[in-house]
Amino acid sequence: QSVLTQPASASGTPGQRVTISCSGSSSNIETNFVYWYQQLPGTAPKLLIYRNNQRPSGVPDRFSGSKSGTSASLAISGLRSEDEADYYCATWDDSLSGGSVVFGGGTKLTVL
Amino acid sequence: EVQVLESGGGLVQPGGSLRLSCAASGFTFSAYAMTWVRQAPGKGLEWVSSISGSGGSTFYADSVKGRFTISRDNSKNTLYLQMNSLRAEDTAVYYCAKEALRWELLGYFEYWGQGTLVTVSS
Fold this sequence. Notes:
The complex is a heterodimer. Chain A is mainly β. Chain A is about 0% helix and about 45% strand. In chain A, the strands form two sheets. In chain A, strands 1, 3, 4, 7, 8 and 9 form a six-stranded mixed β-sheet that branches. In chain A, strands 2-6-5 form a three-stranded antiparallel β-sheet, with no helix packed on it. In chain A, a hairpin with a 6-residue loop joins strand 7 and strand 8 (about 100-105).
């Protein structure tokens, strides 16, 4: 079981807006920045969102992130076929001795 | 150009050992924490271990604590993961990842390697 909870799957049709949630706790999401990673099939993960809602250069503004309390969300608007991928949230967790990085279980996004 | 390149994966028997390496280039290696993340076949990402830029601080997931050792050689710009007492459940692609900010360890990975496959099987 992952420390951060994500839905296993999400789907949408081209042009739609979809959101992916990430639920944590006071020891991780509430007190630390959230990061989102996109993993296309057969490739390494890629940074999609940093510091809750910032996009690295090159990431389209169709992707946006938000955080409130112990939860975070990734929104994808104007859905495109190339957005079909696995998405992971991640953050630092202060609860274990010295702390640790924690990931969500991942959400498989299907573009119908 | 920043590059991180893993090597050392392969097939190993249960109870065996393996050492992974991650060669880094294009940045001041000693200023950045580095992390190993693994992904079992068909599964999600799992954080394995992290090390500070100096090597003085190390962190491990409970699943590998006492069996794996992370280290780095800043003179060679190389990160290592020594894996002992390997189990079938350690079978995964192992990724090396670079933190984005100097001197920080946040889970903010701006560069990832392509991964190296470790298979633990008899």
